[in-house]
Each structure stands twice: as structure tokens, then as C-alpha cells.
Design goal:
Elements lengths: L7 E5 L4 H11 L3 E6 L9 H6 E6 L5 H14 L4 E4 L5 H11 L15 H10 L7 E4 L2 H11 L3 E5 L9 E3 L2 H12 L14 E5 L4 E10 L2 E12 L7 E6 L5 H17 L5 E10 L2 E8 L7 H9 L3 H10 L16 E7 L9 E3 L10 E6 L18 E7 L2 H10 L4 E3 L1
Parallel strand pairs: 1-2, 1-4, 2-3
Antiparallel strand pairs: 5-8, 6-7, 6-8, 9-10, 9-12, 10-11, 11-14, 12-13, 14-17, 15-18, 16-17
Pfam family, one: ATP-grasp_4
InterPro entries: ATP-dep_AA_Ligase, ATP-grasp, BL00235/CARNS1_N
Keywords: ATP-binding, Ligase, Nucleotide-binding
């Protein structure tokens, strides 16, 4: 059995699922090293700062500087693994791992799991079901893309996340307005500008789900399929997740088979993946795939329902050992688990959520979090930045999960 005690793991910007990996590594007796800008939305959470043996303060968006700083540390204190703390750094850490001679995703194809245009190209080249699409980096190219794709369509920044500036357009005026909003947005996301390159793709109607799993020794394993609840279009903010999704067996089998094909087409060779798709009349259609842990607390839902800890799977892949060598598999704790987010698009700020404290007395509530404190301006972005709070809970049946979801409508955001 592999003994992780004393091994050193680097996590680059642990602002999402990578934070769970860092906490697990510390729990297993490993040395945790964090590379971070450590300012703004990259500021290291207090609990992670406490468990980090070393913090490398560096511009993580400058690959050359990051690689030089990490390589210098590696010479003094060898690292056993380098892992991304969020989606933005999947390709970066793959290239960094290759430079240090550590396990990682193939550098020659890794950009296809970050850049949505490259992702579409590889999936289409594999002959898999995918919407019509075209790339654009200017208003003129946007019009050409719209002519290729048609309407309705969806515009997506090629390297963003969290549904930021993802927007449906039913005509040219709406598409042009969405692109103008993107190019006029000066807010940085983890120190990065939004960028002006987008993919315009055919709008796909249908229920949205995610298939989460991992690759090990060439085998693709789908651990769970999660149903998603999205906000009103033209935006696509995720308002909640329920695991497992309520799907007929034949649809489940089709989702699993399609996911396996997508994972292989994108050359994801090890570690976890998060594959989002819509269930169209023709079958599953890829929205995007991330070669990393899912966000929004989905790993916790999956662990509760299946017993599989995807954070341990990710850590094992980074170390180059089998997931069974770490505590990645255990018994499930509940038949169903869900997370619901709350928004208040009609308010500039709020004074609290009526009924919030009473949730503490519910045995099925396993956690809750307030993202935007009372009195703080609510971003009117229509994406993950505008969500106020979330509640996580378990249920004994799909019907009970739906019923509790509906009961949360009684919570009221107070102006």
C-alpha cells in the first residue's frame, strides 16, 4: 500500500475543488504547498493557510514565472504531485507536471479541456454528436459565426467558467448585445481579464445533467449522473444539483456510453472529469467537459450517495497511484443528495433570509452557506457571482428530495 505521509503536494490556486484536495492531503499527513496570487478572489482561505506548510506567492497566470518559482522550490523540497485548484489551471499544471517529471495529463492535448473551441473541434473530429459551432474574436467574426450557426444560439467565452457571460441569443441584436457586455466587462476573474474570444454554438434544448467520474489505467468510470436546475434564459446560472438524476435506465446507459466517448476523444488519461451535457431528442450532446473535480459542492453530493471521494481520486492520480491506495472508496451515506442556490435578481442588496436559521434544526440539512452578506451589493450578473446562498441536504427518495427543494421556496430574501 502507498504511504502518503511526508509526501509533498502542490495545489495551484485552491479556490474550488482543489481546496478539498489540499484538506485531504493534510489529513493524510502530506505536506501541502500552495501557489497563489493570494489577493482578491485568489486570497487563500484561513483554514487552508493554516494547513499550508509553504505558500508560494506568485502570479499564477504567468506560466514562466510560476514554473520558475515552483521549480526552485522543487529543487529544495521535491514535490510528489502538482494539481490544479480550479478549472483555470488544469492545462497549466499539466505542463508544470511534465516539466518536473511528475504524473499529469498529456500536454499535447490538455488545452482541449480548457478551451471550448478546441474542445468542440476534437469532439466533432471524433464523429460524436455536437452542436454546430464557430469561433469569433471580433464583432465582424461574430456576425460570420452567427451566419454559420444560425439562431437560436449560445455564446460562450472560450476559457471562462461559472456560466460567466454565457448567453442565449434568438437574433443578431441579442448576440451583439451579449458580446458587447463581455468585451465591456473589466472585472478580473482570478486575476484574468474576460477575454474577447467566444464560441457561438447551436442552442440545444433538453434537460441538463453532468456525468462525473474518473479515468484510471485506461478505464473510464462514470460514478454518478447529477441533474441540474438552471435559471431563466438567456442566462444559464446553475441554481442547484440533485444526485442521482432521475433517468430511465436506457437514458442512463446512453449518457454513460457517450461520456466515455467524449473522455477518450479529449484524451483525458487520468483523474476525475466533469462532463456536462443536454439530453436532446437525438441523445446526449456535450456542453463542456472539465478534466478536474466538479464545482458547486457536487463532490460532496457524490460522496454521500456513492461513497466515492473524487478528491481522493484526484490526489491519487496526481501521485501516480491507484485510487484504492488512498481512501477514495467507502459506503454511501444517503440515497439522494442535493444542493440548492438562492438568488434575488430584483434586489440590489438584502437584509437577510427569512427562515435561514431554522434550517439548522433540520436533520436532513447537512450544510448551508451565505455567499453575499446582508448589506453587501448583489452583483447583477446572472451567473455564479450573483448567487446569495446555498443549502445542502440529503433525502431518502427522489420524491422527498423534490419535496424539500420545493419547501425551500418558503425562504424569503428580505430587502
Amino acid at each position: 500500500m502507498f504511504d502518503p505521509v511526508g509526501s509533498s503536494v502542490l495545489v495551484v490556486e485552491p479556490v474550488s475543488g482543489g481546496a478539498d484536495v489540499a484538506r485531504l492531503a493534510h489529513h493524510l499527513g502530506m505536506t501541502v504547498v500552495i501557489a497563489s496570487q493570494d489577493v482578491g478572489d485568489c486570497e487563500i482561505p484561513a483554514d487552508l493557510r493554516k494547513i499550508a506548510s509553504v505558500v508560494l506567492t506568485v502570479d499564477t497566470n504567468d506560466e514562466k514565472t510560476l514554473f520558475d518559482v515552483v521549480a526552485e522550490h522543487h529543487e529544495r523540497e521535491p514535490l510528489a504531485a502538482v494539481l490544479p485548484g480550479c478549472d483555470f489551471y488544469v492545462a497549466t499544471t499539466a505542463r508544470l507536471a511534465a516539466r518536473l517529471g511528475l504524473p499529469g495529463l498529456p500536454v499535447e492535448t490538455v488545452d482541449a479541456v480548457r478551451n471550448k473551441a478546441r474542445m468542440r473541434e476534437r469532439v466533432a473530429a471524433a464523429g460524436l454528436r455536437t452542436p454546430r459551432f464557430a469561433e469569433a474574436s471580433s464583432p465582424e467574426a461574430l456576425r460570420t459565426a452567427a451566419e454559420i450557426v444560425g439562431f437560436p444560439n449560445v455564446m460562450k467565452p472560450v476559457e471562462s467558467s461559472g456560466s460567466i457571460h454565457v448567453s442565449r441569443a434568438d437574433d443578431w441584436a441579442q448576440l451583439a448585445a451579449a458580446y458587447a457586455a463581455l468585451t465591456g466587462d473589466r472585472e478580473l476573474d482570478l486575476g484574468r481579464p474576460m477575454g474577447h474570444t467566444v464560441v457561438v454554438e447551436q442552442y440545444v434544448a433538453g434537460e441538463e445533467v453532468s456525468a462525473d467520474g474518473y479515468v484510471e489505467n485506461g478505464r473510464v468510470t462514470v460514478v454518478a449522473i447529477t441533474g441540474k436546475v438552471l435559471g431563466a434564459e438567456p442566462r444559464f446560472v446553475e441554481l442547484g444539483h440533485l444526485t442521482p438524476a432521475d433517468l430511465p435506465d436506457d437514458v442512463t446507459n446512453e449518457v454513460v456510453a457517450y461520456t466515455e466517448q467524449v473522455v477518450r476523444a479529449l484524451n483525458v488519461t487520468a483523474g476525475p472529469f466533469h462532463c456536462e451535457m443536454r439530453l436532446s431528442d437525438e441523445g446526449p450532446v456535450l456542453m463542456e467537459l472539465g478534466a478536474r473535480l466538479p464545482g458547486d459542492g457536487i463532490p460532496e453530493l457524490i460522496r454521500l450517495v456513492t461513497g466515492t471521494d473524487l478528491a481522493a481520486v484526484m490526489l491519487a492520480a496526481g501521485l501516480g497511484v491507484g485510487a484504492a491506495e488512498l481512501p477514495a472508496f467507502g459506503p454511501p451515506a444517503a440515497p439522494y443528495a442535493a444542493m440548492r442556490f438562492f438568488v434575488a435578481d430584483d434586489l440590489d442588496s438584502h437584509s437577510g433570509i427569512l427562515g435561514w436559521d431554522e434550517l439548522d434544526d433540520r436533520p436532513d440539512v447537512i450544510g448551508k452557506q451565505l455567499f453575499i452578506p446582508p448589506g453587501t451589493p448583489i452583483p447583477q450578473t446572472g451567473d455564479c457571482r450573483s448567487r446569495l446562498a446555498c443549502v445542502r441536504y440529503t433525502a431518502e427518495s427522489y420524491e422527498a428530495a423534490q419535496a424539500f427543494w420545493k419547501s425551500l421556496d418558503d425562504l424569503a430574501v428580505l430587502p
